[in-house]
Structure formats: C-alpha cells, structure tokens
Amino acid sequence: MPSLPLILVRPPSPRLAEGELTHLDRVPVDPGLARQQWEGYVAAFADRGWDVVELEAAPEHPDGVFVEDALIVVDRLAVLTSPGAPSRRGELTSTAAGLDRLVDAGVALDVAAISGAGRLDGGDVLEVADVLYVGRSTRTNDQGIAQLAALVKPYGRRVVAVPVSKVLHLKSAVTALPDGTVVGHPPLVDDPGTFGSFLAVPEEHGTAVVDLGDGAVLMSADAPQTAKLYASRGLEVVTVPITEFERLEGCVTCLSVRVRG
Ligand code: GLY
To answer: Separation of 239 CA from ligand 1 center, angstroms?
Structure first.
C-alpha cells in the first residue's frame, strides 16, 4: 500500500513539445532533457521520504505530465477537474483510473468531480491555511469555481476567486511558503493586495514553490536570487532544473499532485 505523504506523477509524453501555449511563444523542447529533468524532480521528493505513485503513461497527451491540472487534493477530498483546454480533457480517464487504484490500495480519499459546464484547472487552485484562492483564468470559469467551493465547504475550506490575466494559471503567478506567506513576481500578479501576506520575489521562476515538509521547499533552479531570499527566511531550499517544462508554461507545482494525509 502506498504510504503518505505521496506524490502522483506521470512521465512526460514524447509529444511534450506540442503542449498548449497561452502566453509564451513556442520554442524547441528537448524530450530527452525533459525526461532527465522529470526524473530529478521526482527524486527530490523521494529523497525526502515521499512515496511516488506513477499514473499510467499518456503519450497521446502532450500536457499529461502536468498532472496537477486534472486532480486537486484538499484534505481527504480528491476532485477530478474539468480542464479548460479541450485538448487536455482526455487526460482525465487515466487520472481517474490512477486515483481509483490509490483508493483501492487503502489511501483514504473521498472522490468528487467538476461537472457540466464547470471548468477548472488545478493550476488555478492555491491552498493557504483554510482558504483556497482560485484563479479566474482562461482555463477556469465561475461555474467551476462555484462547484469547487461547494465541494470543499464540508472540509472547512472557503474559496476566494482572484483574477488571473497575465499568466496561464494562478500558480504561475503566486504560490505560498510553508508559513502561509504568498510569494509572487509582481509583474505577473494581477492584484497582490488580494492576499493576506504577500512577498515580492525578484524572478519569474521563483514564484513557484512546493512545501516538501520539515521546513524545506522545492523550486526551479532558474531563480537563484529568489532561492537566496527563501534561504534567508530560514527555509531549506531544494532546487531542480525544469527548463523544458517552463518552456510550456509549467512549474514545480503542476508536475505532481501532493497527497499529505
Ligand atoms: N502547457 C500547459 C498547459 O497549457 O496546460
């Protein structure tokens, strides 16, 4: 049986370079380097005691490696989303199958789904204590936000919708440190005043952090000044190169779904 904490991940498709682009221009992506970087990303979690569960490979889905967009886990609730990009909706079948296997293996999760005309990408959902900030982006609509709000209410979470117009997802612009401070690169953030406590960081790729536990955060290797800033706040900073995913508007959050228990 998988043990907590765990990450759900999916290896990159050989067609990764064909992934969706919204705000960036297309540049070449090296599939071999992407695979190497993905393995380094997964190892960063495994090295710190996280169990790693791989979803079925989905070579036909260029963006399938960005698993966070199809599945949100909040507390004991797992929500299958309804991705805003039509090209990404086919990722849900193998994501749902992987989630079923996890539940069958004994991981206690309640399963729900966004339905109908609701659209929601997991990259637009940022959890900070009992608040879920949800980006109203090109991928996430008001119906999706309302459905998520109703689903998470019994788990003691409330939803605050926030505008996202400068980047793909909310978490392309802001994430949160373990102490709840929201971090973002101001030119990418629609309204820093939305968040209770906001720390400006000097680099675009420094905005995305994942809480690894025990005072450590995982972030891109492409933001050295921001890494120093986080270290100066007493955090242990683990960096991984993820250039091939950043070229496709990905970051350290969207390459995994974290299940903490
Ligand atoms: N390339 C990631 C996305 O657009 O969903």
So the answer is: 22
Contact 119, 87 (CB under 8 A): no
69-to-81, 88, 123, 198, 221 alpha-carbon distances in Å:
7, 9, 5, 24, 22
Residues touching ligand 1 (Cβ under 6 Å) are: 19-20, 22, 63, 66, 69, 85, 88, 168, 248-250
Residue 169 bears catalytic tag:
yes
Write down the pTM of the prediction.
Answer: 0.98
Structural domains of the chain sorted by starting position, each given as residue range(s) with its CATH number in brackets = 6-13+24-259 (3.75.10.10)
Task: Please give the chain's pLDDT, 261 residues, in tens.
Answer: 899 999 999 999 999 999 999 999 999 999 999 999 999 999 999 999 999 999 999 999 999 999 999 999 999 999 999 999 999 999 999 999 999 999 999 999 999 999 999 999 999 999 999 999 999 999 999 999 999 999 999 999 999 999 999 999 999 999 999 999 999 999 999 999 999 899 999 999 999 999 999 999 999 999 999 999 999 999 999 999 999 999 999 999 999 999 997
Token pair of 2 as six digits = 């998988």
Tell me how far the alpha carbon of residue 86 lies from the centroid of ligand 1, in angstroms: 11
- How many angstroms does the Cα of residue 251 sit away from the middle of ligand 1? 10
The tokens of 251 are what? 């970051």
